[in-house]
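Note to self: the last two entries modelled the partners one at a time, which told us nothing about the interface. This time every component goes in together.
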Amino acid sequence: MLDYVISKYNFWIYIILMMIGLYAMIGKKNLVKKLIGMNIFQSAIILFYVSIGVKAGATVPILSGHGHGHEAIEVANYINPLPHVLMLTAIVVSIATTGIALASLILIYRKYNTLEEDEILKIRKETGA
Amino acid sequence: MADQFAALIIVVPLIASLFVPVIGWWKKRLCYPWVVAVLVIPLISSLSVLNTVMTTGKFSYRLGGWAPPWGIEYMLDHLSAFVLVIVSSISLIVAIYSKKSIEDNLPEKTVPFYTLFLLLVTGLMGIVITGDVFNLFVFLEISALSCYALIAIGEEGAPMATFNYIIIGTIGACFYLLGIGYLYIATGSLNMADLANILPDLYHSKVILVAFAFFTVGLAIKAGLFPLHTWLPDAYCTAPSAVSALIAPLMTKVAAYVMIRLLFTVFQPNFSVNMVPVMPILGWLSVMAIFWGGIKALAQTDLKRMLVYVVVAEVGYIVIGVSVANRMGLTGAILHIMNDAVMMACLFLVVGAILYKTGTREIQQLRHLNKKMPFTMAAFTITALSMVGIPPACGFFSKWYLILGTIEAGQWVWAAALLCSSLINAVLFFRVIECAYLKPMEPAYALNGGETKHEEIQRDEAPLTMLVPIVITAAGVILLGIFSGKIISSVIQFAVPASF
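The predicted structure of the combined assembly is written out below.
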């Protein structure tokens, strides 16, 4: 059992991180904590992608000396760069999402003077908005 | 030139959106003609693409000349070309409409509005055109991000609605991203056509099953399928009129398109229908969506909020058509993507015009609107009849195919739900029409002074830039209904997977 967990530890870590993020997004009352939860959630997925490109004993995928010739390269010697490249895009997306979320938090704070969800709901109920 | 049309659909609005701030910085009032002129190009391109697809069959466009599966390819078949035409025409119509509503209500937001508007359209069209699952994620996020920002411009309560939408929408997009990750582990490919070739050998793998589950849930969130629709009503209702007229017809429909694409192109119908029990679940959820949306809509006194709940119910229509998984049902679903986009566009445009002219959205205050805004209310009535499902308006035909599909699948409860929903829609819309056409002047108002009784109600129609789009969409509702047989025989029947 322990071997099973340890041999796939990257997946376990990503699942634990993802659940922490999901819990924060759903369970926390404070909007900033929700946002931090969202960031943890996205980072978990990024780590998952990064870990699936890794191969045991492989090196960075920079080919030297293969520019001109036609020698075959051993694929197992190089980690897979594609998931990493995909994650560059995903990181950009997650930064943009965080930016928009923070901007809307500023708008919310200006309006209600608080970032606690239950207090905002109370204010909205009282004012009927 | 002609074979580059597929790329122009994406490239033109994307690059043009970067020029909007420059033009706005020079002369603010030039933003509007620029955006309208730019959006004509994707419309022409997508019509030409649809024409090519109809004459020579499906083709793919290789971005930068890289061969798939390494390069990104745009996949143009009957389904994607059809949805592209819908997206590009609705976005052009809403762009024409947006002039007054933005200039008068949000004058200082003109430049960001138009920049984001073009980005949103780029994202939506990219989702439809792309043949690469990761590229689809990027476009999904482009459209979602610009949509968040556009909603946040709106009225009171918009920031809170936006924040909820960001949190839930991000969960949806991340689930989709995880689904891609699992598919990539199992297959090593991101290209849809390539995946469709590799996957059948792996259908018994648990990794594929997990990927499929993540895809379905993620897209259900994006499409606003009950019970994952909670972000939708507040977000769509608080957005500015021009924004909700763009996102209400298109966002959920495009997500439904992606659902059809993944369930029946990337995964074969054989897997999605027979090997995993997802279809009955989706079907029953959409029955609940139809009832929940209808009942919540009945409870609203605000016209726009009522329509927003109708959107929730309409998503149920499309997903029912997908989940019966036969030719009739899927034809109905694809036809309903078009019909619903046109009908919702018309209804939200009308609400925006009413709000612009009268400053209210309360159903009870629409009295005598037939005299004040005769054309707008006529358009509203035509579309309302279409929503109820009265021929020859287009709503009848898609509902007809959907019901035939459910009967063919033997799902009588689903058929009953569709019929009941017509009744609910009848009550909903006739309540509004009664208020606008038939209700007498409020007694208290008439008692206030004798002279108000005799006062003629002045005609006070919406400005021309608003009225023309409304009339076009209302005419579209009738014309698409009359020509629906032609549309099905020339486009939609080829868009349904051949194995059905």
